[in-house]
Amino acid sequence: MTIQEPLSITDIVDGLKHKPGALLPILHAIQEQFGFIPESAVGIIAKSLKQTKAEIDGVISFYHHFRTSQPGNHTIELCRAEACQSLGSRSLEAHAKTKLGIDFHHTTSDRKFSLDAVYCLGNCANGPSVRINDDIHGRTTVDKFDRLLEEYSAKSVSA
User: Fold this and answer.
1) Whole-angstrom Cα distance, residue 26 to residue 64?
2) What is the pLDDT of residues 71-108, one digit of tens each?
3) I want to staple 79 with a disulfide (CB 3.0 to 4.6 A). Which of 53, 85, 129, 131 is the partner?
4) Which family does this protein fall into (predicted)?
5) 106-110 contacts: CB < 8 A, separation 24 or more?
6) How many CB atoms lie within 10 A of CB 96?
7) Residue 86 and residue 60: Cα distance in Å, rounded?
8) Residue 30 and residue 8: Cα distance in Å, rounded?
């Protein structure tokens, strides 16, 4: 098995710029590689696709999936779909923002957690649902959320 070197932003753009509708695949590939879209990527993409930086920034800001800063060690996604709302996700959302001291699409100052909103985790019968990294947690109360934060904080220390 061969270990592949990470691609640079220029390598990613050059490899995808000839595809129809190349911007979104480029942005996804950059975020996959780096965990976010670095500011330096915007100019490279704009020049290569013959677009303005404002056009690229507009697409990045339109799609909540794209990050413009490095995420924390653990990404917390709170479901905001109707099923989870009917089971208390709004109060969980308020608690999470207060507990972490951040809003959606931000990262805690210690870089442990990033907080994002999603609109379905496919766990509707067990709402409110939260995904931390790749782990989905259902029936998440504020107390359960606090316990999860402690658990994942401990994982950050041991990682």
Assistant:
1) 16
2) 999 999 999 999 999 999 999 999 999 999 999 989 99
3) 129
4) Belongs to the complex I 24 kDa subunit family.
5) 107/69, 107/70, 107/71, 107/72, 108/72
6) 22
7) 31
8) 9
